[in-house]
Amino acid sequence: MTRISIVRAARLALGVATLAAAVPAAAEKLVFDHRLSPALEAAFAGDEATHVAYDARNPAYVTDLIAVRGTTKDWTEALVIIARKPAAPVSSADAWVDELKAEALRKCSATFTEIARDAGSVTFERRSTGCAAGYPPVAIYRAIGSGKSLFLLAAMARDGLSEESLRQWRAVLASARIE
């Protein structure tokens, strides 16, 4: 092998190793039934450029924002999906819930109600008061962890959620699972 071939082979191997390390949860994905919320289903069926914002600048913390009411730049109701690589201090769904609660309390007064819990996930509702304009007073979260991956679904609205919307979001979040 010539020196140039060895250098190219080394670069290729380094590139493949870097790519493999940069893809969190490549073997796992989060799936959920978006049809349980007609508003979410409509957002997915609409113009992707105005309803979906994807941010993978940090491969260890990838986010999607789906604007259910409004656009990604000016939403009233949205679903946020986060894929996160487990690492200290957040290496489980429970730890992520603790982080989310602490972050919410730094912004304003909040109460938290646990909706469901199983071995790998926690679903809870946050209701906040006295917050800065634009911070959603109501949000429902489901943190799901597998040891290899962490995912979060967060449904939120800046103008509150009706009982029907809350019911639909709870059903969407309950349908989520890691495959």
Features:
single chain, 179 residues, alpha+beta, Protein Transport Mog1p, Chain A, 7-stranded antiparallel beta sheet, two-stranded antiparallel sheet, 5 helices, disordered N terminus
How would you describe this structure to a colleague?
By secondary structure, the chain is an alpha+beta fold. It has one domain (25-178): Protein Transport Mog1p, Chain A, CATH 3.40.1000. 34% of the residues lie in helices and 36% in strands. It has five helices and nine strands, in the order H-E-H-H-E-E-E-H-E-E-E-E-H-E. It has helices at 3-22, 38-45, 48-51, 93-107, 163-175; strands spanning 30-31, 52-55, 61-71, 74-84, 109-118, 121-129, 138-145, 150-157, 177-178. The chain has a seven-stranded antiparallel beta sheet with strand order 2-3-4-8-7-6-5, with helices on both faces. Strands 1-9 form a two-stranded antiparallel sheet. The protein is globular.
Q: First CA to last CA: what distance?
A: 43 Å
Strand composition percent = 35-45%
Largest sheet: 7 strands, antiparallel
Number of domains: 1
Write down the CATH class: Alpha Beta
How large is the count of helical segments? Answer: 5
Can you tell me the residue ranges where pLDDT is under 50 for at least 5 consecutive residues? 1-25
Alpha-carbon Rg, integer = 19 Å
- Return the string of H and E elements: HEHHEEEHEEEEHE
Q: What is the molecular shape?
A: globular
